Amino acid sequence: MRNRLTVLLLPAVLSCTITTRPVNIGTKTALERQLMGELEPLSDEQLLAASVRAPSADPELTGLDTTQAYAMAARRRQVFNRDEVDELKRRGCLGEAKNAMLAARECDATGDDATRRDRLLAEENADREAILDWVATSDATFTGKGRAQLIDMYHRLLAERAKPGEWVERQEGWAKK
What we know:
This protein has helices at about 1-15, 30-35, 45-50, 60, 65-90, 110-140, 145-160, and strands spanning about 95, 100-105, 165-170, 175. By secondary structure, it is α+β, with helices and mostly antiparallel strands. It has a domain at about 55-165. It has a four-stranded mixed β-sheet with strand order 2-1-3-4. The protein is elongated and about 105 Å long. The N and C termini lie far apart (about 95 Å). The model has no long low-confidence stretch (mean pLDDT about 80).
């Protein structure tokens, strides 16, 4: 009899001790808003910051002066192309010239490799020019006569950063570092 009473009373006792209360949140969570398609669209600035490459270096869109906008776009592209440029330097297809530009070198590049080398060479040299132009215009004390010194300084920096086995043009000619 005692066991029957325990079996009958146990569900009643357990139902009294366990209570559930639903919690209502006044606003939807970000996940709920995303699932329902209610999130606000990203602004132009947020889209620009989230992209790997900016769609444009248009100063009106970025709020920067022209040379600074082009220099920033150039630096972004340099970072994007860095692995491919480094690989071509390692293979001896590209080298650092005295004028602080990349130069094409004789190597085993053929067909698509040669096309890729030429494209990267043109992009990298255009990017370096944009950065040099920005440096030249951003310093109030800089004069046009100092551009040769700027190029020489940039070349020395690039030559120092070159890895062993990469081609670098020196005063006496081309040599591997």
